[in-house]
Each structure stands twice: as structure tokens, then as C-alpha cells.
Amino acid sequence: MSEEKREYSLETKVVNGSHKDQFRASVAPAYLSATFKPNSLSDMGDYDYTRSGNPSRTNVQDHVAKIIKCDYVFATNSGMSALDVIVRTVKPGDAVIAGDDLYGGTHRLLTYLKEKDGVDVQHHDTTDLKIMKEKITKDTKMVFLESPTNPLIKVIDLKSICDHAHSVNPDCVVVFDNTMMSPILMSPLELGADIQYESATKYMNGHHDIMAGIVATNNKVLADKIFYVINATGAGLAPFDSWLLMRGLKTLALRIERQQESAMKIATWLESKGLKVRYPGLKSHPQYELHKSQCKGPGGVLSFETGDVKISETIIEKCELYSITVSFGCVNSLISLPCKMSHASIDEEVRKERDFPEDLIRLCIGIEGVDDLIYDLEQALKFAGVL
Ligand code: PLP
């Protein structure tokens, strides 16, 4: 056997957390304490106040750092607060480029930044590399990207955008929202992003019982700024939520494996019925090859069109196994009409400009039996007259 220490797979890493506990508990305890006593007045110890740090938060941050293989990880109290602490590092007048198909809440926060703080935020089609190369210049301070977007499932060429941004401005900070793929399927920092963030409310926790966010970077200067804001604003993840996130993470790889296997079967089935399906695992997806080149799998979210909003509404209401909720990445399957739910905060006119089909149905596949999920969709499609 080789002497070299084996690099364990992600499937192994997510299960094996390491922590120091005085009683050698196999599961790290939740430190439900807002304050910590100093060892003495000349030795304050590692923790004093949970807003600044808590052992349960440190535990999950260290675990995620091992999974992502990066130097600095911060756990925040939602995906949006993860984004908020990142955007607070830009200044009024700074030029910022963002995708035109980002998550609705991201769009809302960037609009706030533009209107209230005078940050020059411009939205562009980030799937078009030519446009990106034109728009990202030496003056661009930050770029916000997401791939695949949801529910339009548009894919961007992350490495090429990062290479270009850093060649025109080595200090340009490329920020990537990795919520859709999770650290199991995509490694944005390895592709050149400076900051990766996740809504850990989704796949990383996986059970829709907490809100959480993750910010990861290898850049110490950025890490220091981000920690400063987290401490200043109190955006850090609470101890019990840190503990729950740690528990959820242990099944992350297993859940994703099952979710994407089922998503692939469902996408193929829907396409075989003649419906227009958006899923990066289908060869019909225009960026199938690009997605495959930068991710380890297509994930568990897909969308399809029915041709009529009323028909879409009927299908959604007729499904029994898919719960009608926003969000994704949960163990149970979800169905939604994005134009009336997750993307309702985007103006109808803007949705039109961005070719956002109002009849688009989004499916987020869970870990149920896939034949049951197909059966449920089939009865709903038949009821709505689509089949
Ligand atoms: N990023 C994406 C892609 C999302 O879908 C969401 C929420 O739906 C967020 C960020 C925001 O995360 P949170 O809801 O945890 O604040």
C-alpha cells in the first residue's frame, strides 16, 4: 500500500466531521450559549459572545471548509445574509456586473444597493461570453454569477468569465452563487471564482427546517472584510441551526445522488411526452456540453412548459406528491409556478423582456420513489388535458 495519505471522496468527507469535545461525544454538541466566560482577565479564551463566534458555528464552518477545500468559510443566518455580507464590501460608485437571470431575491438586494448606496449595478446576459468580455472591464469591481439559473436553467462559462475578469482587473472579485449545484456537483473556487456562496437552506441542509448561508473564499483580505461585517451585523448562523446544518450535511452526497438520478428519469419522461423541458442533463439542453465540462452532474431541478398558464396551474394543483412551495433542495419533491411564486418580485415587464415563460412549471425532485413521482405527474398532466 502507498505511504501517501489518501484524499477521501466527497461522499466520505461529508459524513466524517472532526471536532474536539471534552467528553469525546461522537456528535458535537450544540453550544446554546450567547456568552462564554474568559479563562482569566488576561486570557479571554476562544469565544466570548456568540455574535462573534460560537463552537457550533466553528464546527460546521470547519466541516464545510474541508468539503469545499478552501481556507475560509463563514456560516450565516440565510443565503440572502451571505450575499448581504458580500455586497457590503463594495463602495458607492463601484462598477458591478450581475446576471440578468439571477434568483429574484438577489436581484432585489442588488437593486437596493444600486438605489440606496449608489453602486453602479448593470445586469447582462452572462451566458453570452462575448457580452461578458465586452462589459467586464478594468473598472469592474465585482461580478455576480449563478449557474444553472433557475427556473430558466441557463448555464454560464464560469472559468472563461473568471479568466477574463482577472486578466482585465486582477482585483475584480467574482462572486458565484452555487446553491443549485452545491459543493457536491460544482467547485466554483477551483474554476476561478473569488467567493462562493450558497443558500444552505437548500441542498446543504436538505430538510427545509432551517435558513442558512455559506460564504467561502481563499482570499484572506476578503475573508477579513466578510468576518468584520458578520460580526458587526450579527449575521452569523445561530448555534442550534449550525448543529442542524451539520446533521443535514452528512447526507448531502447521498441525497443529491438520488435526487439527480430521479430528475434525469423525470426529465426524460416529460420530454418523451413532447413537452419542452429545461434540464442540463438532457442532450437537448443548448449548453449540455458546457454544463458537463464544469459540473459533476445535472442536479435535481428542472422546468417545463405547457403552453398555457391555466393548464400549468391545473397541473400544479392536481399533483399530490409534489408540494406547492418555493425553494428547492429538500428531501421531498416540490412544484411551483415561478412567475407567481419565487419570481413574483421581478416585474412582469422585466420577465417579458427576459423571455420568462409565464406557464413555466418548476420541479425540484426529492428522494421519493421515482415511479411514484412519474405516476403523480402523469395523472396531473392527464387531468389537465396535456396527455
Ligand atoms: N440563491 C438562490 C439560487 C436561491 O434560490 C435562494 C433562495 O431561494 C437564495 C440564494 C437565497 O437564500 P435564502 O432563502 O436562504 O436566503
UniProtKB/TrEMBL annotation:
Gene Ontology CC: one annotated term: cytoplasm
Enzyme Commission number(s) from the entry: 4.4.1.13
Cofactor (UniProt): pyridoxal 5'-phosphate
Molecular function via GO: cysteine-S-conjugate beta-lyase activity; pyridoxal phosphate binding
Enzyme class, broadest EC rank: lyase
Modified residues (N6-(pyridoxal phosphate)lysine): 202
UniProt pathway: Amino-acid biosynthesis; L-methionine biosynthesis via de novo pathway; L-homocysteine from L-cystathionine: step 1/1
Record key words, sorted: Amino-acid biosynthesis, Lyase, Methionine biosynthesis, Pyridoxal phosphate
SUPFAM superfamilies linked to this entry: PLP-dependent transferases
Source species, domain of life: Eukaryota
GO biological process entries: 'de novo' L-methionine biosynthetic process; transsulfuration
InterPro entries: Cys/Met-Metab_PyrdxlP-dep_enz, Cys_b_lyase_euk, Cys_met_metab_PP, PyrdxlP-dep_Trfase, PyrdxlP-dep_Trfase_major, PyrdxlP-dep_Trfase_small
The reaction(s) this protein catalyses: an S-substituted L-cysteine + H2O = a thiol + pyruvate + NH4(+); L,L-cystathionine + H2O = L-homocysteine + pyruvate + NH4(+)
Family: Belongs to the trans-sulfuration enzymes family.
PANTHER family: CYSTATHIONINE BETA-LYASE, TRANS-SULFURATION ENZYME FAMILY MEMBER
Protein name from the UniProt record: Cystathionine beta-lyase
Gene source species: [Candida] arabinofermentans NRRL YB-2248
Biological classification of the source: Eukaryota, Fungi, Dikarya, Ascomycota, Saccharomycotina
